[in-house]
TrEMBL record:
GO terms for biological process: auxin biosynthetic process. It is an enzyme of class 1 (oxidoreductase). Pathway: Plant hormone metabolism; auxin biosynthesis. It comes from the Bacteria. Its EC number is 1.13.12.3. Gene3D superfamilies: FAD/NAD(P)-binding domain (3.50.50.60). It comes from Chitinophaga tropicalis. Keywords: Auxin biosynthesis. Pfam families: Amino_oxidase (PF01593). GO terms for molecular function: tryptophan 2-monooxygenase activity. This is Tryptophan 2-monooxygenase. Transmembrane segments: none annotated. Belongs to the tryptophan 2-monooxygenase family.
Length: 415
């Protein structure tokens, strides 16, 4: 007897996890708009054979599902050590020395009964001119860590994020793509299949791409949030409340830049650099610890990244050099002379993805509840933006959401 057919849209973490969980009892086909599986998990090898993470880079703490998959795949991972430094006007300060006012701000966020955007919270409780430094610290953290628009990001979400942040980051030895290869093994993945239209009725779906038509009994939509926000997939009959719910949830922009140099000149400043935070145009940088690759990764998140969505690589490279020149008190020409390779990943400009990961807004929990409710046990949604737990915006969140949807189908199945 032929197995019941399920269509999964998107071969990122959520889609792969859902398909893998269902594959023993269902015939599962994954439709991926890009030319490779993995989505925002994307590792490339440089000319020297080193691994560079274009997208997701760290395992943010001892996350059970991700680590269990790494163990199952036989993939090694290592702790990322090093100190966090703040650099302002050429002055370097270790993180533990710059907490003045931060803990009280977190306490006030936790005590506030009403959810509100971070900007409104700062204006209410930390008005100018007396709180300029703390306001900038909070806004920079929201933009850099959560990729959030401070006019939209809710303080309840940010409070949970900032108070549950793990101090332990882990790096996968061969990168996230090695895990993608393991998860994709044996699955029916059709690449370069951008879904345009889904016709559905209870127990039956017809999924159309530009070139092919696929049929099944159920469909699991695991596309990045902007695809839903922009109604890029048409549903017949329409399910407008789901698109409306998607537009309530915040979506972050990011530009990631990896610069490889002749030697690790930053070790002359400090040998134990883990992360560098600054107010430069490309504000956040980190080395490749524990790997000794002489490379720095630059990170620009939130609204400033969105503003540079259409910038060409030369502009972004110049901004990187000027930022590092100010941070390390060297000339941009010196940095250009030392550069041996560079990779620029402007995720907001990448078709079918349009950014990095989600963040919570006031009202986002109700939006998640809508998106986590199946349509007639036929149309399902999954992805990191639908996850409600202690690790939002992570690969773990996407894995968890994909697995939860698959288990929901299995628990209600007659297969």
């Amino acid at each position: 007897m032929a197995k019941e057919q399920i269509i999964v849209i998107g071969a990122g973490a959520a889609g792969l996890m859902a398909a893998r969980t269902l594959s023993s009892q269902y015939s599962v086909t994954i439709l991926e708009a890009g030319n490779t599986p993995g989505g925002r998990m994307c590792t490339i090898q440089d000319m020297d054979g080193g691994y560079i993470e274009a997208g997701a880079e760290f395992v943010h703490g001892h996350l059970p599902l991700t680590l269990s998959l790494l163990h199952e795949a036989g993939l090694k991972y290592y702790p990322v050590e090093g100190e966090m430094y703040q650099v302002e006007d050429g002055q370097w300060t270790q993180e533990e020395e710059m907490d003045e006012g931060w803990n009280s701000l977190l306490e006030k966020m936790g005590d506030e009964e009403q959810d509100m955007p971070l900007q409104a919270f700062l204006d209410k409780y930390y008005p100018l001119p007396g709180n300029a430094a703390l306001r900038e610290h909070a806004k920079a953290f929201a933009q850099g860590f959560d990729l959030a628009d401070t006019e939209k990001a809710g303080i309840k979400f940010l409070y949970q994020e900032w108070t549950n942040e793990s101090e332990d980051n882990l790096r996968i030895e061969k990168g996230y793509s090695a895990l993608v290869d393991f998860l994709a093994k044996g699955l029916d993945i059709r690449t370069n299949q951008c879904v345009k239209h889904i016709t559905w009725q209870a127990g039956n779906v017809v999924v159309m791409t530009a070139s092919q038509t696929f049929r099944g009994s159920k469909v699991i939509v695991t596309v990045p949030l902007p695809v839903l926000q922009e109604d890029a997939i048409a549903f017949s009959p329409a399910i407008d409340t789901y698109g409306e719910a998607a537009r309530v949830i915040g979506w972050g922009s990011v530009i990631k830049i990896v610069l490889k140099f002749r030697y690790p000149f930053w070790q002359e400043k400090a040998e134990n650099i883990g992360f560098i935070l600054s107010s430069e145009k490309i504000p956040t940088w980190w080395p490749q610890l524990p790997d000794d690759m002489p490379a720095l990764t630059g990170w620009l998140g939130g609204h400033p990244a969105l503003a540079l969505k259409d910038a060409d690589d030369d502009v972004l490279l110049d901004l990187s050099f000027s930022s590092l020149a100010a941070i390390f008190n060297v000339s941009a020409d010196y940095l250009r002379e030392q550069l041996t390779d560079n990779h620029i990943f402007n995720w907001t400009a990448i078709p079918h993805i349009h950014g990095a990961y989600s963040y919570g807004t006031p009202g986002f929990l109700m939006a998640q509840k809508v998106l986590n409710t199946p349509v007639s046990d036929t149309v399902y949604f999954a992805g990191e933006a639908l996850y409600n737990g202690k690790s939002p915006g992570t690969v773990e969140a996407a894995f968890s959401s994909g697995k939860a949807v698959a288990e929901k189908i299995l628990s209600s199945s007659n297969v």
